[in-house]
Amino acid sequence: SMRGLVDKYKFIDGKKIKERGALQMEKILNDDYVKFISFAQEKIQHNGEGVVAYVNNHTFLDNPTMRAMRHHLLSDFDEIYIFNLHGNYKQREKGSHDENVFKIQQGVSVNFFIKKKQSEIRKSADVYYAEIKGSSLEKFDFLGSNHMETTKFEKLSPNEPYFFFIPRSEKMESEYSNYKTITPSFPLKSIGFFTSRDKLVIGFEKKDIENGVEEFRSSRKSNEELCDELDIPVKKGWNITRARSLLKSENAPQGFFIEFLHRPFDKKVVFYHRSLVWSMSQPVMRNVLGKKNLTLCTSRQLAALPWQHCWVSNSIVELCYITNKTKEGNHVFPLYVYDDKNDQGELLPKDSTRHANIDPGLVKSLSDGIGLSYQSDGRGDLSRTFGPEDIFYYTYAIFHSPTYRTRYAEQLKIDFPRLPITSDKELFKRLVALGNELVNLHLLGENPFDPSKTILDDSNKWNIKIGGTTPANLDEWKVTDVRYDAKEKRVYVNAGQYFEGIEKEVWEFMIGGYQVCEKWLKDRKKAERMLSTDDLKHYMKIVVSLRETIRVMSEIDKAIPTWPMK
């Protein structure tokens, strides 16, 4: 059967590959072009010799989930030629003019898989690679006037575990592999929570969602009628009757309306109760809810975007806090783990003891490197001691180094980021200070461990103002038309009203999958909201925070004298 064609691509040497998300793997491998390659491979195998020439989606060249497919192609063929035409609309670097040869968003490659009649025992296929980027006209021009002999191919040596069919820098690979993996350096982690019914349980304010929640709790309608009325998608495996009685038995449902960070800089309210939240993401979130904590939010396997996936939160966090695709949902690493129970299993008071969510191996490497002794809570003085919060800020600074992000761009597409360890005490101290500054900016001055003042407390230094007039027949500051005017440095929220003093790089600044200045306003446009005085001030703070972030990121690069870090 066609479905069975791709089953072999789940195994390497008889062992099934371990991959996050079985559904995701099915989806990737069940793409039609994968079936066609498999079908052709079987025909050639049966025939004993032949050539497969195929123009297709280029994802199979480097997607980690497709490593077994590459391994099978290497085993069955003698020579493989890849001509990568790029053109992946989603992977385009900012400002580049790489176009697709077809009118599609998915990148493309031309591939030749060659099998010769066997006379001797065969080894792994030789892989040759060439590529072209640019406008579609340049690509057609090259394709029309060249053939295999006139094309300069580079020989690759794909090796385990990923068997990539694209060039990778051996130097970077080995340099990066010496760094500390973030798991298990920060052992406790989970993905962010997700509700599967956001419309019902997430709102800008409590009043947006409390009626729906109350209806779910006390309605006498049948499950079908209720879900239809509240527009709830009925998820397979969800026991609605049980969810309803669970919620009904709560004496004080008001306590479950929680303010949280839904997107960067964007606080919303969620009804955080297991009757209506599909995945609560415990035990991580109970270490954040109502506790003083910071969480590091980052993701892995981001084939589609440059890596800009590191942010912070002081509240519970949703799966798509910084990622706009569920397949690359963000993970959450809390700084502290609170011990709610004592040795006898009895519940401790709310401000119970806590310990840092940091592996002793990471602590020892840092301590040996910088010659400071570790104290297990809070911050050190950085002349004799350092603490868990210092490690958090140090990590946060490095993950915001522009050079780190570009130097290891290939490696960051595959897994969580890795952390280099310095043995320079002064550099450590400088990076801690810069990471601390970033955390304070990113939480808009609400870092639970550091109440010190920031530029956000002094609006005289913001260099941003509001202006314009309300268009006729529109409520004041209603968000209807979000656009950026680079010449005037203005962000319009409707035809007449705008914020002024916003640089292009701030307007375009990306956090994970979001262009934040645009995203924050577009969410409000979709909800047909007017900006309140508080909203106007909040948006200005976002702009100032991002402007300062760009400055601090370049300071981080200036502070790190050489790569690999010493």
How is this structure best described in words?
- This protein is of the alpha+beta class and 566 residues long.
- Helices cover 32% and strands 17% of the residues.
- It contains 18 helices and 26 strands.
- The relative contact order is 0.08.
- The model has no long low-confidence stretch (mean pLDDT 91).
Fraction in beta strands = 15-25%
Shape: globular
Low-confidence stretches: none
Mean of residue pLDDT? Answer: 91
Task: State the end-to-end distance.
Answer: 55 Å
- The total beta strand count reads 26
For the biggest β-sheet, the strand order reads: 3-5-4-6-7
Q: Briefly note the structural class of the backbone.
A: alpha+beta
Helix content: 25-40%
Rg from C-alpha positions? 27 Å
The major pleated sheet works out as: 5 strands, mixed
- What is the helix tally? 18
At a glance:
This protein has 18 helices and 26 strands. It has 566 residues and is of the alpha+beta class. Strand 1 (11-12) and strand 2 (15-16) form a beta hairpin.
